[in-house]
Amino acid sequence: xxxxxxxxxxxxxxxxxxxxxxxxxxxxxxxxxxxxxxGKADLTYYREASVEVIxxxxxxxxxxxxxxxxxxxxxxxxxxxxxxxxxxxxIDSHMxxxxxxxxxPQSSPEQEASAKDAALDKEEQRSRGLQQWLAxxxxxxxxxQSSAELQLTVGALIVEEMRAAVEKHTGFRCSAGIxxxxxxxxxxxxxxxxxxxxxxPLDSVTELFNSLPISKIRNLGGxxxxxxxxxxxxxxxxxxxxxxxxxxxxxxxEKTGQWLYDLCRGIEFEVVKPRQLPKSIGCSKNFPGKxxxxxxxxxxYWLHQLALELEERLTKDREVNGRVAKLLTVxxxxxxxxxQSSFSRCCALVRYEATKLxxxxxxIIKSLNTAGNHQAAW
Length: 378
What we know:
Blueprint: H1 6-9, H2 19-25, E1 36-37, E2 40-41, H3 44-57, E3 62-67, E4 70-74, H4 76-86, E5 99-101, H5 109-118, H6 122-136, H7 148-170, E6 176-178, H8 182-189, E7 197-199, H9 205-209, H10 223-232, H11 245-252, H12 254-263, H13 296-321, E8 327-335, E9 340-348, H14 354-365
Parallel strand pairs: 5-7, 6-7
Antiparallel strand pairs: 1-2, 3-4, 8-9
Helix pairs in contact: 3-7, 4-7, 11-12, 13-14
């Protein structure tokens, strides 16, 4: 299984599960078979759908495409323009029908107790939080800059319109996060899926981070995140605020230490880079359990299948976008005796030809064959 709907996830189904195992968890599971090409899933249809969505989004703001189903938007200029056009107009809650405000509604202990007793449903909580947030927005004096809170709210308004346009023109629904930087926006996007959007104000970051695992933060899901939890003996993002900038710099280097010191306080400065095309074109295939590759011939066969797909996609990209790739990167993940190991190397990409791509790739990875170069086994 390569993708799972929210309904199936609620029943414990996850990616990379075998279908039979998934159906044991969710007997009513409906499985759609993806088209295949070169012995693996053919995602062409989904890539083309992604291009459609990005084209609609690019009419609203500067877009940085991050993956086949994710993009960042810099709304700054669009918000400033919208604020000028709005003048003294109020933002009404009906304009933000799918918007959550993280940290709202804010309640007194007595209200919290009664809310738990009443077991308010999620939509009612959303509506109350939004109303409270809108009522708290300060009106800027004439000629002065609008507050950060108002700018976030106008950003949410624009994103509501953008998501409606995506659905109208493509039929696809999407979720969104609106905040002060890329890390917080990505985090907010995942808080109320599917087909909803969440505003994450800076004032709500501390409470959220106090219970948020470090691995949930963008760029901290890998080795750096593990290193932080092991070195500092902490689990949640908010725990990082206990350490001084000097201490973090000493442990992780001056640059990373400064970045972590700011990040755990919700501060981050990475800009949205205008980019509607992917930076790289790649393909891969997993061989779990009994399907693992055991001979040199099998490895060479599957390298060639991947190279055939790569040749097709690189050629199409050159024709459509007028650019040429210069670097070939080959990556391998292997399951060792105790833990997974990974290997990645690069070489010059000489020409778009599957035979050359696969032979260069094999030359790069053959040193991984512990059976020895003269053996048929791998």
